[in-house]
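Example 232, ligand zinc ion.
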Amino acid sequence: MLRRTFLLTGLSIFHRKPVETLGGVEFKVVRNNAKSPRRYIFIHGNEDTAREVMDLHMQAYEGTAFSVTGKDRYVTVAGLKVDPNRMFSRVGAEKSLRDLNPNVDPGPALELLEREREKLMKRITPGPGSRLVALHNNREYSVKSEIEASDETSIKEPGRPRNFFLCTDPKDYAILKQSPFNVVLQAKPDPDDGSLSRLAAKRGFRYINLECGLGELEAQLERLRWLENNLP
Ligand SMILES: [Zn+2]
């Protein structure tokens, strides 16, 4: 009996997405109309649902999306682990580096992050009048942890506290709170924990983080579509 093997080499039906290293971290970059000022970011590599939501979403909506390629929550910078959502300020990065790498000098990693941060920020800062949308998933964390730190809150789904928007612009909040979903506004740059939301508040660009429970693909897609259809 002859068994034939068909090799599909040369029949590549997909293109490898461009990969860029920004701020010491590797990202896949997906563009849907490079002229669109909208930006999207996926930064915690172990939040699989948000990664999938981002890929699906970018097939239908315009903008440029940056998705971390690693599969862990933490990224490695100069050999040390750091939470990528704590590396947006020196003070936040240093705390995360010290927490995750006890008894190791965080200096070289900190310096690399300082040198590279603007390169990353240049790419993910939205164009004038536009916004940066971040996608996250959680396991236990919920909007309850953010109530105290927020300027305003609208909790329309108290039974689904893990699904919520966190925004930094009062105008976005005014629109998002008309949705049937949970929303909090954090417009102040302090306390500076090194997160992207606090840096967005400091620099004055619009930032919206959509948090959903891990595995809640449809819920996250639905909320993201509401955002697209209602926020300019
Ligand atoms: Zn996250």
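Summary: The longest strand covers residues 25-32.
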